[in-house]
């Protein structure tokens, strides 16, 4: 279901001025860890998004998250365009 993103701390969430709602489908979760760049809370906090180097992952579905998901996908494309590959 729908839940908010909290503590967003990566360019993937550029333009977020408040907690935004995104759509989660799965019943499993990743605990908060050193790669966590956004959290959500359902009973307790868990990782909503993770980043390591230039790899990004989301527990939620951006493509099903309306205008917020569209903004995340636009940010991802901007990151990809600006990436420097070796």
Question: If you had to describe this structure to a student in words, what would you say it looks like?
Answer:
It is a single chain. The protein has one helix at 66-82; strands at residues 2-4, 21-23, 36-42, 44-52, 55-58. By secondary structure, it is α+β, with helices and mostly antiparallel strands. The strands form 2 sheets. It has a 3-stranded antiparallel β-sheet, with no helix packed on it. Strands 1-2 form a two-stranded antiparallel ribbon. It is globular, with a radius of gyration of 12 Å. The mean pLDDT is 90.
Keywords summarizing the entry:
5 strands, two-stranded antiparallel ribbon, 1 helix, three-stranded antiparallel sheet, 86 residues, alpha+beta
Secondary-structure topology with pairs:
Layout: E1 2-4, E2 21-23, E3 36-42, E4 44-52, E5 55-58, H1 66-82
Antiparallel strand pairs: 1-2, 3-4, 4-5
In short:
The protein is an alpha+beta fold. The chain has one helix at residues 66-82, and strands spanning 2-4, 21-23, 36-42, 44-52, 55-58.
* Principal-axes shape call: globular
Low-confidence runs: none
The tally of strands reads: 5
Strand-pairing-aware structural class: alpha+beta
| SSE series | EEEEEH
Biggest pleated sheet: 3 strands, antiparallel
Taken as a percent bin, the fraction of beta residues is 25-35%
Q: Report the helical percentage.
A: 10-25%
* Average of per-residue pLDDT values: 90
Number of helices: 1
The separation of the N and C termini measures: 39 Å
Rg is 12 Å
Read across the widest sheet, the strand sequence of neighbours is 3-4-5
- This entry's quaternary arrangement is single chain
